[in-house]
Amino acid sequence: MISTTEFARGGYSFIKGVFSYSAGVAALPGFRIERVRFATPMPLAEGFERVEAIIKSAGRPLTALCSCELRSPAPFTAAGFRQFNELYVAMLEKWGLIEGGDNPVARSNVCPAIDPPPQPGFYAFSFTTEAKDAPRSFVVAGSGEVLEGKKQEELPRPHCRPRRPHGSRAAAEGGVGAERDGATPVVARRDVAGHHRRPALHRP
User: What is this structure's pTM?
Assistant: First the structure.
């Protein structure tokens, strides 16, 4: 049975995953998950700056970050993926998101088949806000099919393959209470900096 861990400083619970991401998150009572999507992918460093500004402008701590949706130009090599994850997790640590060695932030990383970004970066992100009596909301990581506890070199790198919305992914949704509590996936909160073009995508 999949269990969750409460991350009170962020206003959500999470399913333990691996070094670079959790398997999924769900808002705690009194909170809801809101999503912000950028008009075009933002390079990682610049994206973190924008994420920080938006979360702070909403009056929330940086620990409210609960999900990152990334875009990459092409699949990483094993060494490149490890280096990318180390830089990414270092920023989460700086923001106080890594607690007891656990990474609570869910993540997806997609390589667009059309108009890929020139470098890895942010497509969208989600964070919690205070919301009394809000319906429970959740996000499942993009690699929800992957068994937990894999070594860093065994983690899936972005590549082209069909989506499989079943198996471990369904179990992860159940783990964050999707079936039990009638929770709903997070929906878009707003677009940032203009209109967004929706390219054809392949999931990692």
Answer: 0.77
